[in-house]
Design a protein that fits this description.
- The longest helix is centred in the C-terminal third of the chain and has 18 residues.
- A hairpin with a 2-residue loop joins strand 9 and strand 10.
- This protein is 25% helix and 28% strand.
- Helix 1 crosses helix 8.
- With 317 residues, the chain is of the alpha/beta class.
- The strands form three sheets. Strands 1-2-3-4-5-6-7-8 form an eight-stranded mixed beta sheet. It has a five-stranded mixed beta sheet with strand order 9-10-11-12-13, with no helix packed on it.
- It has one domain: Ribonuclease Z/Hydroxyacylglutathione hydrolase-like (Metallo-beta-lactamase, Chain A, 4-Layer Sandwich).
Amino acid sequence: MQISRRHCLLWGAGLASGSLLGACATPSSTKTVSSMGFFQQQLGKARITALSDGIGRRPLDAGFVKNAPLAQVQAALAAANLPTTHIDVPYTCFVVELDGKRYLLDTGFADNGAAGTGHLHQHMRAAGIDPANIDAVIISHMHGDHINGLRRKDGSLVYPKAKVHIPQDEAAFWLDDARMLALPESGRGGFQNARRVFKGYPRELIQLFKSGEDIAPGISTLAAFGHSPGHTAIRVQSGSERFTFIGDAAHLPVLFVKNPDWQVQFDMNPEQARITRHALLARLAADKDWVGGYHFPLPAIGQLQKSGAGYEWVPRK
């Protein structure tokens, strides 16, 4: 994946705290407590829990969608009965409980984020999940809002017993010293943040994987490059039912699922991200997977239906 120097500068400068993002089949049974920050759904013998780490607000400007007029973006928000002057960005992690193990998909901010974030553990406990019992963490990509929840500000590990599965291409990019040092100091923030999180991390807990490999029986990965060099989707299957976590392959569903050609400003390779988004959404709609995304609002689990040139994401009720 080719990443331009301009995109390295943008992401390197903004990802130390996730600030760019912060501003960025019928189930067997379903349990909803969205007002308490979580949503649970049974998936065969597995249980999927969507968990809010919080919401970040950012003013809406012409740069948020790089290839659509601001008026068109505002019209799409208005059609969804959403404000047109700002964007409220949800941060949604997922816990998969399968075969006696608990897998956390992405991590939120812990105590590293802005006000309004860092609520993941509060909502885990409300859902009946003890954070100390997380067995493994699966990272979709290494942008700050997805990895910062692994390590607190004081340097302590949030999940000191959990294996951490990281896409190999992500680690190769963000932990490349030569790539970081080729940038001016102002553009190194995202690279430095990756080192803040992973420097000194116990080696026995880090598991690199190639996108497309299985993590465990019933948990597979799908290459979904473009948003970042090794961005990866995660698919859970139990019996005939499937759930796919698409990470940031599509940002807010009312904008980027509805209009897959639109390119959010955070995509590091916008054209590859656009192609990936079309292919992934088409596959998930055809497969009738349950689908969740990191920036999808609770319940954050739903299905895709073809609608014109794009798709409707229909949340589970």
